[in-house]
């Protein structure tokens, strides 16, 4: 598989979650996003601006509602995946949730369109998993179970909340940088050239860090799926098969060659994900869910 990512040093690729780094470091990436926002605010208005930015972010997090899963499903034109039509899939979800220690079963939907994929949205008892029609009809039961385990790992870890936080941080950084550039251009302040360049660059830096957080959560969800399935083999098989399906179904685009560079991508490459799964040692299985009391499988 061709890797379109720039040839960055290995430690930077691991930090930006282009390559597996062994453990999740989403917290470190989010701390960097906060640091970028704080530095931008400090250069613009000192401590008072930093405090104002912090208050604004807190208010945005408190007042910004997550998109309702029902509304999102309507936007995506998804239809319910009914238990009477697909009892095996509902049983898979129930057993996986039971093993993960979740107190509820997610609602299931079918996504229209080409390509094999799945998404998770919502939080707590309102979690929703949507599976594409191609995935539903082209994956084996074991591959489907692996994809469901991956999505349930997202739900267990509250990844939708994490992505909401990173989105707010990015938007706050973008707003302050734009405000700063407006002052530089239309105000009386005559900043040095490096500051203008920096304010122009910080939204991109924050965006790249946000994408890295998303990729990090994908690695973590793969790890969680491996734990739920007692090993990575089924997840590896599912990733390879999904890649084959998407190459065939989206080949007229053509698939991969039109996708964005890895730095802008929301998922690590299939090669990197399989590399991370194969690096898991048997002793690390079950560690992803170790903080939750799980019933016996």
TrEMBL record:
GO terms for cellular component: plasma membrane. Residues 86-280 form the Peptidase M48 domain. InterPro entries: HtpX_protease, Peptidase_M48. It is a multi-pass membrane protein. PANTHER family: PROTEASE HTPX. This is Peptidase M48. Keywords: Cell membrane, Hydrolase, Membrane, Metal-binding, Metalloprotease, Protease, Transmembrane, Transmembrane helix, Zinc. Belongs to the peptidase M48 family. The chain crosses the membrane at residues 21-44, 50-72, 168-186, 192-209. Its cofactor is Zn(2+). It is found in: Cell membrane. Binds 1 zinc ion per subunit. Its main location: membrane. One of its GO terms (biological process) is proteolysis. The keyword Repeat does not apply. It comes from the Bacteria. One of its GO terms (molecular function) is metalloendopeptidase activity.
């Amino acid at each position: 598989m061709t890797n379109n990512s720039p040839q960055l040093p290995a430690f930077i690729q691991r930090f930006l979650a282009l390559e597996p780094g062994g453990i999740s470091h989403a917290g470190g990436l989010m701390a960097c996003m906060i640091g970028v926002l704080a530095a931008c605010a400090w250069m613009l208005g000192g401590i008072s601006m930093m405090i104002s930015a912090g208050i604004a972010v807190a208010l945005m997090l408190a007042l910004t509602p997550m998109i309702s899963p029902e509304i999102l499903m309507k936007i995506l034109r998804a239809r319910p995946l009914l238990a009477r039509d697909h009892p095996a899939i509902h049983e898979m979800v129930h057993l996986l949730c039971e093993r993960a220690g979740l107190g509820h079963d997610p609602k299931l939907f079918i996504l229209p369109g080409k390509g094999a994929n799945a998404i998770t949205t919502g939080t707590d008892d309102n979690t929703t998993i949507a599976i594409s029609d191609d995935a539903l009809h082209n994956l084996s039961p074991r591959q489907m179970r692996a994809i469901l385990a991956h999505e349930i790992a997202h739900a267990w870890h509250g990844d939708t909340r994490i992505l909401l936080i990173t989105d707010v941080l990015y938007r706050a950084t973008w707003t302050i940088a734009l405000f700063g550039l407006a002052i530089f251009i239309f105000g009386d302040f005559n900043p040095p050239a490096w500051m203008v360049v920096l304010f122009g660059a910080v939204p991109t830096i924050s965006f790249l860090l946000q994408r890295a957080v998303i990729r990090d959560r994908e690695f973590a969800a793969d790890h969680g799926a491996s734990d739920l399935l007692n090993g990575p083999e089924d997840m590896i098989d599912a990733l390879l098969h999904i890649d084959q399906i998407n190459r065939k179904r989206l080949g007229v685009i053509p698939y991969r060659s039109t996708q964005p560079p890895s730095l802008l991508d929301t998922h690590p490459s299939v090669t990197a994900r399989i590399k991370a799964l194969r690096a898991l040692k048997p002793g690390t299985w079950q560690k992803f869910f170790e903080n939750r009391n799980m019933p016996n499988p």
